[in-house]
Amino acid sequence: MSIEDLAQTAQALVAAGKGIIALDESPATLGKRFEAVGVANSGDNRRAWREVVLTTPGLGEYISGAILHEETLRQSSADGVSFAQVLAGAGILPGIKVDTGTHPLAGFPGETVTEGLDGLRGRLKEAYRLGARFAKWRAVIRIGEDTPSGTCIDANAHALARYAALCQEQGLVPIVEPEVLMDGDHDIESCYEVTEITLRGLFDALYNQQVMFEGTILKASMVLPGSDCAEQAEVDEVAEATLMCLRSAVPAILPGIVFLSGGQSDEDATAHLDAMNRLRPHPWPLSFSYGRAMQQAALKVWAGNPAGQAGKAQEILLGRARANSLAALGEWDGQG
Predict the structure, then answer these.
(1) How many CB atoms lie within 10 A of CB 160?
(2) Of 39, 156, 225, 248, which one has the greatest count of Cβ atoms within 10 A?
(3) By C-alpha distance, which of 279, 262, 261, 278 is closest to 270?
(4) Are the CB atoms for 107 and 147 separated by under 8 Å?
């Protein structure tokens, strides 16, 4: 695929007023969410829940892409239509998570590196055949007394860059996600410093691996104080700090930035995105790639009873999508 094709796909993912829904939880992670609402973690239930989400009427009005787990990309609706085809019919680009998770970084206690490069070229080729047109890889950076180390940042940046280069080779737009976790008692200034260093390291690695920025999307965490910090930040402070950090480290040529919710409440994730977009213009579109913050309220309603609650769950999900769409335009009214 040419750079023009990759750029066109990337631009479609960050089209005005549209964002990405993340449905890429592993069976184990989704199982924890199911357990919280009293749903058994079976393959049938996982497939049924994904179908509720992906067949929501009108979802394509607000959602440009859906990141799927490999299990979901291979599944079909009850009518036998592959989920990739269901999404394409709604005007939504199918994507896939391809990393294999975080593992301890040898020699650096408490730090991790994301793995999954072995055999990735073949897995990406298969994902494209199944209908995926973009992919995602998540790195995890923890803030602590002596972390992150430069080695941790460099190791994760290198893996993200190798993944991104392989994606583009196979015609897939890479979403690179270097998540700086909210866990801890660090202040917003510490988060700013770590996020800036992480992003600078990432884009240096992408450049060195000859990744084409025009066909790459950044999935970023917001600059926030730790969840256990005694002094939490106001919405405008988060928006201003996040924007300043991004402007200092992210190339303007990038087609767009989508944010992860990262443990924020549904409303906070929407409010912070809206506040940032009210401070436009920016070098890039700013949108969302939310998972739990899009699905959790709907999942509680559905609770494994698709016959009785699928429609209500879809209504709630669509409301969250609409609210985040408005926030991506800087027009959210605080409702939904």
Answers:
(1) 26
(2) 156
(3) 261
(4) no
Query: Radius of gyration (Cα) for the chain, nearest Å?
Result: 19
pTM score of the predicted model: 0.96
Mean pLDDT value of segment 177-186? 97
Block residue for tokens 């401070």: 279
Question: What 3-state class would DSSP assign to 48?
Answer: helix
Residue carrying the six token digits 């989508």: 258
DSSP label at residue 82: B
Catalytic residues: 177, 219
pLDDT at 144: 94
* pLDDT at site 281: 96
Could you give phi then psi for residue 180, rounded to 5 degrees?
A: -90, 115
CB atoms within 10 A of CB 230: 8
Tokens 């801890």 belong to 184
Each residue's pLDDT tens digit, 229-265 = 999 999 999 999 999 999 999 999 999 999 999 989 9
Q: Which residues contact 108 (CB under 8 A, 6 or more apart)?
A: 147, 149, 151, 152
Q: Which residues pair with 22 in a beta bridge?
A: 67
Tell me the C-alpha distance between 210 and 160, whole Å: 12
Residues 6+ apart with CB under 8 A from 334: 271
